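Dear colleague,

As promised, here are the two records you asked about, laid out in our usual form so they can be pasted straight into your sheet.

NAME FIELD: protein one
SEQUENCE, THEN STRUCTURE:
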Amino acid sequence: VTSSESAFAFDAAGHVVGIEPEAQTESHRLIEHLMIAANEAVAALLEDRKLPALYRIHERPAPERVEHLMDQLVSLDVPTPPVPESMTPQQAGELVGDISRRVDEHVRRTGRGRMALTSLVLRSLKQARYQPENVGHAGLRSARYCHFTSPIRRYPDLICHRALLAAIGAGEDAPPSAPMCSLGEWCSKRERDAMVIERTADDVARCFMLERELFTQRASRSGAGEKGRSAERTGEIIGLIGAGAFVTFGQGHEGLLPVRRLRGDWWELNELGTMLVGARSGRALKLGDPVIVQVERVDAPRGRVDLSPVEL
């Protein structure tokens, strides 16, 4: 399962003028493989020398989480592999790999659902974190892994640098072992906080870009003597909550389609969180479904977009 990130373009005044998904090239993949190899080599040396360090660990998924994922995918008519009667964590990890391949095949065949289904698979996994005891990295299928080299320098990287210098006799004392547990917890929490900030910043940037697009469109329509609401936009449901559906549309934009704007029925989220179901009609709005929406309101400083339905 892979996910893409957006790259924002800014003008000289600091305004967002473009959004494009970052394409991964062959050179990117080569560098990633080299970085993983370096991280594994350093982790192996530090563990062999029994030096204090912070390992990047990723535990196998819990069997019950994988069973829940299977139920979610079945509700969306996504093909799934057979499930063992008594699933072990190792079998759960192997099953997620098989599920990921089937999800990718389903998306390629149907042409939709990439973001929503990828999100379901990722949420079934445990979060990677830092700790001084090595238990391996299930996501990379690596027995020993640490963060030693990367485009950024995190504190866990620096700890591994100090430990490596001590291991090769380069004049650096090994980091003390006593605070490693608390450091691992602290660094893991800071990482999660940074991810929230990054997502929020991306949402704000997208909103400013959307406001720019809407202004340009309205100016064009006004110049042509046209009036009315904002242009219709084709989108896809990528997330669901009781209050409505999250929809991606246009050039990487996202917004909330509130259930209060879905007239003529009472919509409720099913137990699996994969569809909104109309209580009277029995109609369902599922993850991955195409929709046509209009932008009602953009709150750029808060990174929020409200949508209204045109065609569901």
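NAME FIELD: protein two
SEQUENCE, THEN STRUCTURE:
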Amino acid sequence: MDKDILEKINNPKLSYPRVAYGKTLVELGQQNDKIVVVDADLAKSTKTAYFQEKFPHRFFDMGISEADMVTTAAGISSCGFTVFASTFSIFLTGRAWEQIRNTVAYGNFNVKLVATHAGITVGPDGASHQALEDIALISAIPNMKIMAGGDYLSTVNLVKLIAEQKGPFYLRLPRCKAVELYSDTDKFHLGGSQQLSSGNDITIISYGLMLQRSLSAAQELNKQGIKARVIDMYSIKPFDYDAVLSAAGETKGIVVAEEHTIKGGLGSQIATFLSQHQPTKIKYVSMKDEFGRSGEPQELLDHYQLTSNSIVEKSLEIIND
């Protein structure tokens, strides 16, 4: 593995991707007076409060009314503005799904849906707040594009990227801190990915908080003489088709690790694609067909086997098959 990545995994520096989102909004707002932000009574948690403080006349708190927030965002964007709309993932993709589909996506409005608190690591708030189906729900909608921030700097870059791109986006962010993996020189683009570790034995594809666990798994596999290719698939819809095809052709199989249900997530989309273009062995480290529960984030990741050990086990199953 790359020595720089090893250093970042073995001596991790942690920071909040949602803080990166809030501070990047301020930067964008300073550069462009057409940036508008709406939130649903959670600005302090989503960190849009940074923008609210700097630009109160371009910030609208819609209260606990997510459907209104999404349709209002679409209306504002129809007047030539780029609108960022934020709340927790479970509320944005659950309560406001119809408005996302029938207003934002159908109208192809320039609305950027940025959801924090995605996945099982929402933790003590429990199953009612743990969005495990959001990628499945949003990826099924035409015109919607999906990105996922894996650390602080990737989030900065992705927020800037979706601000530049026209049309609706969904950006998925966690509640927890993430290990800082990227540098100022790393580039991101729609339909792209980042290869964080090289190898031709097995490929591990991941995003978000599972990246750290994927890299730890690659480190353990390396001790066993197995070279793992680790890919951050930060662009989920569209994903990096070329990188997936290369992985299928050059390694013995693919393990997809994601903090999302196995049904309809990135793993499902990759499997559908490869079944038509280059079938290969695929294993999954993801949530099964079940709800989460209350607990501390690490406790929940261990309980639902979203761990580096699970990734190692699935990798070995492919290699030893």
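A couple of things worth noting about protein two: Residues 14-179 form a domain with the Rossmann fold fold (CATH 3.40.50.970). The longest strand covers residues 254-261.

Best,
R.
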